[in-house]
């Protein structure tokens, strides 16, 4: 009988400790939910290409075979997007990029999309971007992506008319105008 009483006391003590810990967790969760969130309005920038850095002196060829270089894009704001055919997120992001270009009145010469061919169908990507962007197809994280220092896709860069990066990030939201 004494052993049974000992077990009951032990189980009661464990239950009491469990209850106290649960109450502490609930209290902490309430405190956390009452604190204002300090989320930044802007998405994080790409470490490899932060605002204020000049667009690298890249050279490439468009799908039509025309040469394109960083100097060709000076004089107007330019958006750069980096995709890979092996990236499922990239494919779903193309319509958002096209929508951004349309909403901001960007001409195809102001939207440069670099598609890394990671074993997919670059032509399918190019068809979706037809008439909305200048398209460069290269090997996965090829020469142009390397010039920009891109380490992952999707990646987006917004540059001003002087060729200076205004914003960069991993979503189309990174292309939004810089708030004053």
Automatic annotation (TrEMBL):
Residue ranges crossing the lipid bilayer per the database entry: 6-26
UniProt-annotated stretches for the region Disordered: 34-55
Keyword entries, A-Z: Membrane, Transmembrane, Transmembrane helix
All copies of domain Thioredoxin, residue ranges: 49-180
Source organism, top-level taxon: Bacteria
Any Pfam family hit: AhpC-TSA
Name used for this protein in its record: Thioredoxin domain-containing protein
